[in-house]
TrEMBL record:
Descriptive protein name: Toluene tolerance protein
Entry-linked Pfam families: MlaC (PF05494)
InterPro entries according to UniProt: MlaC/ttg2D, Tgt2/MlaC_sf
Keywords carried by this UniProt record: Signal
Natural source organism: Acinetobacter bouvetii DSM 14964 = CIP 107468
Amino acid sequence: MNTLFKQTLTASILSTVIAGTAFAAPSEAPPAFVKKVADGLISRLKADHSKLQNNPAAVKAIIRQNLDPYIDSQAFTRIVMGTYATNQYSSAAQRAQFEKNFRETLIENYGSAFAKFTNQTYSMRPYKDNGSKNPVVTLDFNNNGEKIPVSFQLADKGSQWKIRNINVSGIDLGLQFRNQFAATVKRNGGNLDKAIANFKPDAEAAVDKKK
């Protein structure tokens, strides 16, 4: 699988953001929500492609404007921290710091991939509503004839859906990042503060896990 494309795709999905407060049931069906997010991001990447090559600030602006409102970063934090997200192992301040660091690291590491995004397309698989609180919508991203399936697991946050986890080519990225974080804690002798400060999620390694 093309490394740059996987990196770009993962960046598009995984940039961690601030979860919003909501008060009413989502008005959109899950597939419509995912299509809105994907189309909005792709259209910005295409429109601003020439401006992104040497402009990291512009790349970050696109991430924040087109992804920030749609990611449940608190849920993602709980998934990635695993047992360390409980009061037994961490404080609220540590969890908040982890969430902040995780978001910024992804933006920094994968911003360059946005700048190199080319004319990629996708198709949406038929959606089956099974009444789950965490519905899953799957897109097949097309890269030079190769289809890369990406499944978005959503969370009902009241006024809209938010993305709480994703699966790329059969790989649960939340779980892979959890394993990476646990290894980071171990390397830092169980010191959670040091592990949080040093954790560098490796999306490329996570996606390549299946190989």
